[in-house]
Structures are given as structure tokens and as C-alpha cells.
Amino acid sequence: MKTSLFKICLICAPLALASCGAKKSLVKDNATVPTTQATHKHAEEMQLAFVQKVSDQKVYAKNIVSGLSFTANMDGKSITLPGALRMRRDQVIRLQIFIPYIGTEAARIEFTPDYVLVVDRLHKQYVKGDYNQLDFLRNNGLSFYSLQALFWNQLMLPGTNRVSEGDLAKFDVNLDGMGQNVPIMLKNGNLAFTWQANRNSGLIAQAVVAYTSRSQGNSTLTWKYDNFKALGAKSFPATQEFSFATNATKQARKATVKLALDALKTSDDWETNTVVSSKYKKVEVQDILGKLLEM
To answer: Where is the signal peptide (predicted)?
Structure first.
């Protein structure tokens, strides 16, 4: 503000000595300052309104259940298997992988607020650990609630289990572009989030979580959404593809998983947590996707 007034005074001062008409010019130029403030306030209101629009697209259901086709690519290996997804808000995200044609469960990945569980049914072994023990989650600074927001196609705010109305102003928005999608950004410590939301519908088409650390290296999680289907009064992405890349390990690694969902339902007739049989052997914590590809 002070800089703007100083520039106006410099421009108008010589004219003020010449005539009374110059005084009118000074008043006119000063009048642009509140106009600029009003424009800036309007831009902020437009940005907040867009974030609100995106936030309002989240589904109301407490449970989401669906069959799926699971495809994973990592280190030159690729598998495609049938499976199922069961999610209960704030409690569990469960991915089940089945043996083709037979339908027997081969593997199960379960995320809860407290731990991650991977069960290998074929070899009767399992991996269980908290989020700090698992490289691809720790290096991306992800918790259960962060993953839940990604699976549920929603905005997230690290350290909280949901984004409240009062949190919406914390997000930055760039409405200046002409593209179909509008970037929404958030910086939190070593984490940088960028969502691409459709300008008209407000639906999130992509989310990128970048983690940068001198001691732990750089990691990027890219989550893409497509093929939105009706789920109650809202829409849910029936196709989700997430890629994880990191140089935190001795060798740079990248893994991609694609979930093609079908027959989305909101059924609640299923158990929340998995109880592992005492006959299963607990093995050391390893990369979850790598473990799955070895099955």
C-alpha cells in the first residue's frame, strides 16, 4: 500500500505545481487503491468458493464396497488379478486379491488408523506394522487419514482426519488458467500437495503428493481418478490409478497400481478388522507392493 501511494505521489507531484486540475488527477489516481483491494478480495472469494465446491463433492456414504480388477507394475513385473475393495470411513481400507477363476483370496492389504496389514494367504504369512515402519508411506508422510482422502477422492489436511469449513482458506487456488482442470495447492513442511479439480463439476481428477527431504530423499505419489459413477447423491471414481516413485532407497524405484471398480455399493454387512490365524507366520516389514508381486 505504501509503495503504491509513493509511486502515485511521484508521478503527480510535478503536475500539482502547475494547476488545480492536477489535484483532480491525484484524487483520481488514489481512487485506484481501494479498487485494487476490492479486486484482490473478490479473487480470494472466488478461490474460496471453488475450494468449497470441490469439498462439497465428497460422498456421504460411510461404507463403499466394490469388486475390482487389480493391476500392479513394479520393477519390470506386472500382475492383473480380480479383487475387492471394502472401505469404512475412519476405520478401514481393505484391498483383497483373488486367484483368477477359482475366487479364493490370495492376498489382503488392510489400512487402519493404527497399522497396515498385509496377509499372504498362499504362503500363510503376514506383515504388520505402523505407518512409520513402512517406507513408501513414511517417505511420503502419509497416515491413514491421508490415504483415506486419496481413496475417497477428497481434499486432505495433514494432521487432521477431515477438512472442515474453517480449513478451506488454507488451500491456494489458481483460477487464471484456461484448462479444464484447476490446480489446488497446499504446503505442509516437507509435503507439497497439488489437486487438479474439474473447473465445472469440482470433481478431483488427480492428486499429487510430493515429499522432499535431504535426509530421506524425494518421493512422489500421483493418484489419478476417472470413470465417475453415481454413489448415492454424489459421484465416485470407478477407476483409480496411483504411482509411487522414490529415490530414498539405494536404487530409484517406481510402482503403479490400477483399480478398476465395478458394482459400487454402500453395504455395511462385513467385519471391520481382519483377525490373522495363529498358523500364519509374521515376517519382517518390507515393501508392500514388492511383497504382493512375489506371491
So the answer is: 1-18
